[in-house]
Amino acid sequence: xxxxxxxxxxxxxxxxxxxxxxxxxxxxxxxxxxxxxxxxxxxxxxxxxxxxxxxxxxxxxxxxxxxxxxxxxxxxxxxxxxxxxxxxxxxxxxxxxxxxxxxxxxxxxxxxxxxxxxxxxxxxxxxxxxxxxxxxxxxxxxxxxxxxxxxxxxxxxxxxxxxxxxxxxxxxxxxxxxxxxxxxxxxxxxxxxxxxxxxxxxxxxxxxxxxxxxxxxxxxxxxxxxxxxxxxxxxxxxxxxxxxxxxxxxxxxxxxxxxxxxxxxxxxxxxxxxxxxxxxxxxxxxxxxxxx
Length: 292
Fold this sequence. Notes:
This protein is an alpha/beta fold. The protein has helices spanning 32-43, 57-69, 100-107, 126-138, 217-234, 244-253, 277-284; strands spanning 3-8, 47-52, 73-78, 114-119, 145-152, 163-170, 176-187, 193-195, 201-202, 207-216, 258-263.
């Protein structure tokens, strides 16, 4: 089975005003995605597809892509606001592309039999990649069975800012029932995790999604059908997003997909706030150089 790593990187650099203004996080100038690519290749991924914006293509290839082109089969896909099916037009007030579902849809023609998805600015640890590859290979004869790696909520928090996470409802057999987006999760002064000022506490071991999925080819192909359906309903809303969990949930409701939840004890690392940067950089300094 040919498994592709799909790195959803269209938003990379936008927070800092361009790719050249991004701060490398590793001691030798590595970006977070460098560590994820290295972990995925070590787990047996055979191809890497970076989904980026056209306006950062040159900088991305020069600064990031060429690091990996000699080490792997590297390809590039492009996510754009105006990359919509015939008959649809983005609303004039919309400024951004359409979310993670559109990002993977852009990468889909370049992917192999299956794809593992990651956000470019999240570090997942090597265990999730190994678990997903094992699942995808062992279930190759089940094209509508997919997988997601679930993290403990307390191991995905920032000490300095609220985070958005997908809270998972998992059936007794280990399959995913649903993902509910929580946008302002943080630990309060009383030591309890809540979503914003909501009264309901969330347990430390609540399973959450970090967009680390393993999809068979069937789902990649289904995205081309699901995106126009999304645009018909929400395409006139300037901030609507075609997100992977939403597209997946739609297929699950119709009985056309199932998702096995693979749990990990790994800790997420990322820079949600500028105040996170020092601690995150210190963590990456303890890891082997992914570019060595």
